[in-house]
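User: Continuing from earlier, I have the next pair ready.

Assistant: Great, send them over.

User: Here they are, in order.

Assistant: Folding the first of the pair now:
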Amino acid sequence: MTKKRFSYTLLGLCALGLMLGCSGDGAQVRQQLEALEQQNVNGEKLLNDSLAESLVSYFDKHGDANERMRAKFILARTYYCLGELPRALEANFEAADCADTTQADCNYKLLSLIHGQCAMIFNTQLQPRSELKELRLAEHYAWKDKDTVMAIKRYGQQSGVYEILKMPDSIIFIKEDAARRYREIGRNDRAARTLGGSIIRTLINRGDLAKAKAYCQIYEQESGLFDADKNITKGFEIYYYIKGEYYLATHQVDSAEYWFRKELRDGKDIRDQIAGSKGLQEVFEQKKISDSIAKYATLAYELNDSAYSLSEMDNIQKYQASYNYNHQRFLAMQKESEAKIAWLTAIIVILITGILLGYFFKRYRLFKHAALDYRLKNAEITKRFRAMAKSEPLQYPTNDDWKQLRSLVEREIPAFHSIMNADDTPLTEMEYDICLMSRVHILPNEMAKLKKCVPSYVSNIRKSLLKKVFGKEGNADEFDDEISKIGDSRIL
């Protein structure tokens, strides 16, 4: 326990003891609870868990349902401020269990707030289904409290879960429905904010550019987030990237470049920097300026690597917090010697560390493989092959094109040629070309066009290659699955 934390604990216990001694009816204890609630409303961090736990103990014995719920919510907020998320989640659940919804005076406002905080914790833990359940409960109790603005807000937040679950229809429906509800109560500013961000990005991805443009205009004119020079409020700069994506989708490359550069210049968060770099890479890919492509691709890759490391470190801290909480509960139940407890602690730490290292090594490998796939799929020569397959009249790769494709794959995966060409079963030129195109994710019908044959012939070759290269019986799609697993053993 730190010196500061100890001071909070001692002061909290002394203060509560004095209050209980001086007030038979608990008036001063209730004043202390109200004071902590006001600190929470003001955005101040609550760090005295001993005081909060003492309040919970008092109201468990002397309080009504609403007071017990209030005290446990303050305890949950304290744990949250201390970074002890598992304990915060458990305290929130206990607070919700205190609510007596059969009574007319049930504090539905607080009950909605409790479920909203649970949703926030599940969001940080990447548990979308649990987050959705809590958001729906938060919305339900906001309606019961007749807080229309909060109810619509909780409803609109559910679109974020569907974004994680990759359900674009649900994102669009909820966002548009929430905006309509805001307009019905005269909150056009909130309606406009609801139509910004993820819904615009979803519409761009779906090719609905007219609606995306309309929502951009509403967002800029009615949200209240922009100044006269169209600069957005600090913290919302990711919109510049979204606007750049719109201009890129409408083939206004110079305008897209302007907004991506603004994102990179004004957005200080690492996500803004990644988005700006990615956008500029896409711009220069269209302009075919190779030096700039390499510059911003490298920058985006480095930033992604940094963001991945920060994310993994955050995950480690979450796992460690969960471990610490469960371990402390375990220790409290045991009555063993100090030496035995220390030994058991060491064993558990070693096991947890081993599990975490295995988990994060696996995640690292997946990340590196995804990066490799991205480079292969988006390489200039790969794009050229796809463009030739879609050209009218049809164009075919030259010998130099084939050499570039082989060079790309064998440079990124040095062992690729030897894996494909075992000593006893060397591949024909046609077979090896099919392997190359499959590894860079060129579609079977595109392969057939580029090799001047029918799609069924390509399917038969891929099916035979599954047996010849991998020793497995199966269909052509299973060959694609197997070859996609091949990566650079130096990093995988």
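And the other member of the pair:
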Amino acid sequence: MYEVKLEAFTGPLDLLLHLIHRLEIDIYDIPMAELTAQYIDHIHAMKELELNEASEYLVMAATLLAIKSRMLLPIHEGEMEDAEFEVDGPDPREELVTKLIEYKKYKEAAIEFKELEENRAQVFTRPPSDLTGFVPDEQLALFDMNVNVYDMLSAFQKLLRRKQLKKPLSTRVARQEISVRAQMVAVIDSLKLSGGRANFSDLFPYEDKSTIIVTFLSLLELMKRHVVFVEQEHNFEDLTVILQKEDIGDELEQFDEQN
């Protein structure tokens, strides 16, 4: 069984901050219905990939549903007078907003410390040398990624929805065992045929869910090994997969050794 560990999943608060940023939501006035729906979609995507999501993700999903339910509760006539004196009472979202703001502060501080660490690592007892002339531009471009794992999950969730809508009412599919290694080669071949660039959804011409999942995992492996590069020009637009290296013999050997 092929297992994947994604370092980008640092916790439910990290996922919530990503959704708030992507949906351009005011963190002080969160629309709980929309945020809860988007969060649960990501949980379902994790389930489709057969990732063992941590219990804190499910606890946060329950918390969001509880807050959403409290905001939907009507005020009865007998409670109207008391409600008039509780206009300034606690907002059900207040505790969540406080946690998000605190988490955001620590996350930004961690990024600053990471930058300081990286800068300090460049300091030696002799003046640093400029080595940019020895590194190809295309290799440097690999580190200028504007797509993270949450964006990949969103694209994967949209792909599954489109496949579900196009799925016939009744069908019979013969189960085939397809390896991640084989799909890595298939993705590279597809990119070569399309001139080195392809739309994310064009790499999934399959109807079988297991094949779609294995193809998605193979794409993540290729990204991790800097064989392909994924970009998104504007928010909510389709992802574009770009081939960076055609010969992946060494990468396949490393993959075989690690698995």
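Worth noting for the second one:
The mean pLDDT is 77. The first strand starts at residue 197 and ends at 199.
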